[in-house]
Amino acid sequence: MKNQINNILLKNDFTLLNLVKLGKAKLKVLIAAIVFFILIGIAYFISTPTSFSSATILLVESQNTSSAGGLGSLAQVAGFSVPGSSAELATLDPALYPMILQSKPFLEDLMNSKIKSETYQDSVSLFKYFVETRPDNEIYKFLKSPLSIFKPGIQVNDSERDSVKQKDRTRYEPLEMYVLYRISERITVSSEGRLLIISTTMPEPNLAFQFSKMVKNLLVEYSTRYLQEKQKNQVQYLEVQYQKSEEGFKEAQNALTTFKERNQGLFLESMKAIEQNLNAEYNLKFELYRTIAKELETSKIELNNQKPIFTEIEPPIIPNGPIAPNLILTLAFCITLGFIFGLILIFILYIKQYIKLHQEIEV
Fold first, then answer.
1. What is d(CA 155, CA 135) in angstroms, rounded to the nearest whole number?
2. pTM of the model
3. Residues 310 and 220 sit within 8 Å (Cβ to Cβ)
4. Residue 324 DSSP one-character state
């Protein structure tokens, strides 16, 4: 058999039949490569923690915001839109939802949220859960930090972290970055038209259900905040103007009332002129006060309308079984990889043998 292989290599007789013979001659190498990769796959399967998935399908609806505007010029001067001047849709661009879900503030709010886990008796934060349990592949953890198996696990005190929470963070600790990354990779989102599909994974079935609900509720909160931010500024501006117009109206009302009380029975033309001026000022202040009050109420209604509507088409449920690791899929992948690697190894071995044989002939 060895002489036959050498003759094929020396004569460069690489027909299909001869290629099959070459493959059979190195069949043990191919089998060894496949077995090697199968063992790696089994080790990966055993060392990988289970993952459970829970999905939510939301229908993102919008509200047509239109209302009749009265004065509105004061708000326009301040740089705000006039309520009712145009119809706007209270919704966000679907492309923004993945960005919101992967933003640092959003992930930080999730990280500090409390969950109920099988590992703990009481509710704990996601930060504490991920830092203390480290639900990663055991081989990966060992390769990343071989000495970690000799070190005690890190303990997190949620009460201390709650007391030192900061707003508008510009820097995160390494452990916080680790948890933020782990949380972000467990959230996937896709949109199909007005449908928003949010899928989450966690090491425990009940935890996957809790996490899916947390993500959905926080997304609604963030979306509402983004849409209402401009309208809130307009409401705050009109509230200030309302206070000022109310004070001016009351001053004009008091001035007119006081003048009439002090000048009863007098019919001098000069007094009538003063009274007419006071009446005109009162009417002006009253009209301004009434118009701003109307604008303020309209803006408050507009603020409530600037709220996205998320209808649950498919609510999250507690999964019955894990989605990962998948033994059949892992073995199929490893067998394919072993087969390809084995063929490459056989090709390299024959290349070396081919070069060696031709060098011996030349010598």
1. 15
2. 0.70
3. yes
4. B
The one-letter code for the residue type at 257 is T
Is the Cβ–Cβ distance between 82 and 69 less than 8 Å?
A: yes
pLDDT tens digit string along 116-131?
A: 999 898 999 999 999 9
CA–CA gap between residue 72 and residue 113 (Å, rounded): 42
In degrees rounded to 5, what are phi and psi of residue 323? -100, -15
Rounded Cα distance, 316 and 56, in Å: 5
pLDDT of residue 266: 61
| Torsion sign, CA atoms 148, 151, 153, 154 | negative
- Residue 12 burial (CB count, 10 A): 9
Helix 327-362 vs helix 16-25: crossing angle, to nearest 10: 110
What tens digit of pLDDT does each residue of 14-30 get?
A: 777 877 788 788 889 99
The CA distances from residue 20 to 13, 15, 28, 346, in Å, are: 12, 9, 14, 12
Helices (H), the chain: 2-11, 16-25, 27-47, 73-77, 96-101, 104-111, 126-133, 138-144, 158-163, 174-184, 205-262, 269-305, 327-362
Residue with tokens 């006081």: 258
- The sign one gets for the Cα dihedral 355, 357, 358, 362 is positive
Q: What is the distance between the alpha carbons of residues 234 and 243, in angstroms, rounded to a whole number?
A: 14
DSSP label of 198: E
User: Rounded distance, CA 91 to CA 106, Å?
Assistant: 19
Backbone phi, psi, residue 181, to 5° = -65, -45
Q: What confidence tier does 86 reach under pLDDT thresholds 50, 70, 90?
A: very low
Structure tokens at 10: 């020396």
Please report, as a single letter, which amino acid is at residue 84.
G
Classify 149 as helix, strand or coil. helix
